[in-house]
Amino acid sequence: MHQTTLQELFLEELRDSYDAEHQLLKALPAVAAAASSSELRAAVEMHAKETQGHVDRLDRVFALVNETPRRQHCDGIAGILKEGESALNAPPSATTDALLIAEAQRVEHYEIAAYGTLVAWAGTLGLAEAAELLEETLEEEKFTDEKLTQLATSDVNASANA
């Protein structure tokens, strides 16, 4: 479909993000299982719970705009997850953890861009309540990215280099 209005772009991005979150719900348990660091595993497990909250918020946003929640395949997240498959199949080690963090941060950066766009568009469209819900998710994605950076720089990268 060729979008002609900001409202149509917003709905397309909403559906794309909805699919991305569902793809992540499916992938995160394998990421947690592949981690050798208990801190990394706990962070991934916590983010899996947050991701379910992201889906729930998106359901609420769909309701606010009188749309049925529908997924539109997110090629971006699918590609990032495909690239990260090698880390899931590698033996658990600090090096694998470093790679898992790198792949997870690629996901977070993608989601930060998507949710930032959704927040801006919701604001422009006068969808204040939707913008607030999307902003909550955006802030959680930023926090997860910061936590991953902290894990990488405080221990995992140095252990991978030992």
From TrEMBL:
UniProt cross-references to SUPFAM superfamilies, sorted A to Z: Ferritin-like
Q: Which InterPro entries match?
A: DUF892_YciF-like (IPR010287), Ferritin-like (IPR012347), Ferritin-like_SF (IPR009078), YciF (IPR047114)
Q: What is this protein called?
A: Uncharacterized protein
Pfam families xref list: DUF892
Write down the species.
Luteitalea pratensis
PANTHER family per record = PROTEIN YCIF
